[in-house]
Design brief:
Length: 228
Amino acid sequence: MQSSELFPTKAFAERKERAKKIVAYLKKTYPVPKSELLYETPFQFVASVILSAQATDKMVNLVTAPLWKKYRTIDDFADADLATFTKEISSISFYQNKAKYVLGAAQYIREHYAGEVPKTESELVKLPGVAYKTAHVVLGELYGVYEGIPTDTHVRRFAIRFDLVDSRELTKISKELEMLIPKEDWRYVNNGLVLYGRYVCSAIPHPCEDHPLTKIWPAAARVWPKAR
């Protein structure tokens, strides 16, 4: 247990109460966590999450909708020709590194996990291109396991805008949010803030005083964090 929980400061207590109100809205509005990335097999989802780093789900889906008809199983990915796969995903940002990560992850899973996408963070982060955020997105989507709060650009933006954290680095933000929010509600944070950021309150500065979450913390209307 963190010292801030044993001896909460006024600021920590205020953040905890504010987080409680925000999560209550997310839980009510987006009650069933579900990624918008397209996939039919477990590793397709892993691959899609890797491809989505610093890219929109919409762009990733445009590429993978036809491509996942060709690549379905671990073997399809693990045995794929790197040059061909690289060209096939070339419209996605950082496609050269991502192609290596995806095929490398498939090969690692086949060799070390008998072709099954692993079910723990410690195993998932051994895969190329997979860190804390990706591991917990995969665990939540594929297995309903929520042992952490994944922080992407949307979660980072709102965590800063609503003054819930002091950190600016993704994994550190996750850890701070995990201190504020009860574990049984972790499942709603990433999914809810991603959807809220896409469809209600975008990253481009705009009047948002009337948005549901801004009403909880009006000061957020004046805070527009820069991307990393």
